[in-house]
């Protein structure tokens, strides 16, 4: 079993020695635009209202149980 592992490792290393390089494509990321788009979607989807209702309800339950 270990000999198979060594042979497989040698094969993988041999592949890289022939110039096969895996690369990743990079693109310009505009962080502020992404944040603004996410925030707008958060507000328009109604999740902000649900968050507010959950905070108020949780605070009321906390007040009742303590």
TrEMBL record:
Protein name per the record: Uncharacterized protein
Species whose genome carries this gene: Chamaesiphon polymorphus CCALA 037
């Amino acid at each position: 079993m270990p000999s198979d592992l060594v042979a497989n490792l040698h094969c993988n290393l041999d592949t890289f020695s022939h110039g096969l390089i895996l690369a990743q494509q990079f693109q310009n990321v505009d962080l502020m635009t992404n944040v603004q788009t996410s925030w707008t979607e958060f507000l328009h989807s109604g999740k902000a209202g649900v968050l507010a209702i959950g905070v108020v309800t949780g605070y009321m339950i906390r007040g009742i149980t303590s």
